[in-house]
Amino acid sequence: MAVYTEVPDDELAAFVARYGIGDLLAVKGIAEGVSNSNFLLHTTQAFFILTLYEERVDAGDLPFFIGLMEHLARRGLICPLPVKDRDGQAVGQLAGRPAAIVTFLDGISVRRPNVTHCAEVGRGLALLHQAGADFGMERVNSLAVPGWRPLAEQAGAAADTVSPGLGRRVMAEIEAHERSWPQDLPRGVIHADLFPNNVFFIKDRLSGLIDFYFACTDAFAYDLAICLNSWCFEADASFNLTKGQALLAGYESVRTLTPAEVGALPQLCRGSALRFLVTRLVDWLNVPPGALVKPLDPLEYDRKLAFHQRVTDARDYGLKR
Ligand SMILES: Nc1ncnc2c1ncn2[C@@H]1O[C@H](COP(=O)(O)OP(=O)(O)OP(=O)(O)O)[C@@H](O)[C@H]1O
Ligand SMILES: N[C@@H](CCO)C(=O)O
């Protein structure tokens, strides 16, 4: 589920009335997602998404996220556009939480991406990197290398209840990256969570990107590594080279990787697998009692990490040079 906060009907009606988006006809809680509470609003004008930002999202970051979606939409990227209320504000308060209404995007996300989807998302990611180039704001990536050790420490000895030796494996990996993480790669706005559930398609063509709530300023190639992890592995944890080739070629059809980025790709893939391993591990070990949310499997990323540890060359991901 992802409806953590229930909204009383009268509060919702008063909130929606501030936005001049017509009268509310229907509202439905959205089950997908794990971070925020999302509702589908149907008004006399159109469909919209109402998001109540839960504890995970720092309210201080909302101007970055909202400003970024507005900027990317202005640059022609298809992403949710925040709606302004009658005072010109995109973020208000509802049921005690910061809340915003954004436009509804057509399309559906795919559970099992095919090669065409991978090519499309590679291209879409590069377009996002280009479109973000002149966005004036910056946000530090709180889940970059310095953020991994505190998460691993939070998991502590309990990591080994998930898989024997996991705590030691994670710590060794963190130490390796702390010593040698590549610096000075081309950077800018990255999505940082462009998993298949955050990309919409209509008939195999990418139709929109959502969920910008991990977006930050970091290396472009790190974002690409996140996509290789989340789009190009099969259910049995084998890497699908054809999908990797398609994703990388799709990316490079818009933006060519520099030699430094190509050289760093294996380590960036390892690091991004570790990032999702540690965040999933902490969530797995801390499911709030009675919560209806199903934690994501940390070991999926332990298996992906094991693959990356054997890789030495970006060609192993399908790069053709
Ligand atoms: N602008 C939009 N247009 C159409 N559907 C949307 C839109 N935004 C969100 N959704 C729907 O709501 C679901 C949850 O949204 P989202 O992924 O942003 O939630 P979240 O809790 O922040 O997710 P995550 O688990 O990835 O952190 C999506 O899977 C999608 O079905
Ligand atoms: N994409 C993340 C969830 C948070 O968006 C994961 O799969 O671990």
UniProtKB/TrEMBL annotation:
<feature type="domain" description="Aminoglycoside phosphotransferase">
    <location>
        <begin position="27"/>
        <end position="255"/>
    </location>
</feature>
<keyword id="KW-0808">Transferase</keyword>
<keyword id="KW-0547">Nucleotide-binding</keyword>
<keyword id="KW-0791">Threonine biosynthesis</keyword>
<dbReference type="GO" id="GO:0009088">
    <property type="term" value="P:threonine biosynthetic process"/>
</dbReference>
<dbReference type="GO" id="GO:0004413">
    <property type="term" value="F:homoserine kinase activity"/>
</dbReference>
<keyword id="KW-0028">Amino-acid biosynthesis</keyword>
<comment type="pathway">
    <text>Amino-acid biosynthesis; L-threonine biosynthesis; L-threonine from L-aspartate: step 4/5.</text>
</comment>
<dbReference type="InterPro" id="IPR050249">
    <property type="entry name" value="Pseudomonas-type_ThrB"/>
</dbReference>
<dbReference type="InterPro" id="IPR002575">
    <property type="entry name" value="Aminoglycoside_PTrfase"/>
</dbReference>
<keyword id="KW-0067">ATP-binding</keyword>
<dbReference type="InterPro" id="IPR005280">
    <property type="entry name" value="Homoserine_kinase_II"/>
</dbReference>
<protein>
    <recommendedName>
        <fullName>Homoserine kinase</fullName>
        <ecNumber>2.7.1.39</ecNumber>
    </recommendedName>
</protein>
<dbReference type="Pfam" id="PF01636">
    <property type="entry name" value="APH"/>
</dbReference>
<keyword id="KW-0418">Kinase</keyword>
<dbReference type="GO" id="GO:0005524">
    <property type="term" value="F:ATP binding"/>
</dbReference>
<comment type="similarity">
    <text>Belongs to the pseudomonas-type ThrB family.</text>
</comment>
<dbReference type="InterPro" id="IPR011009">
    <property type="entry name" value="Kinase-like_dom_sf"/>
</dbReference>
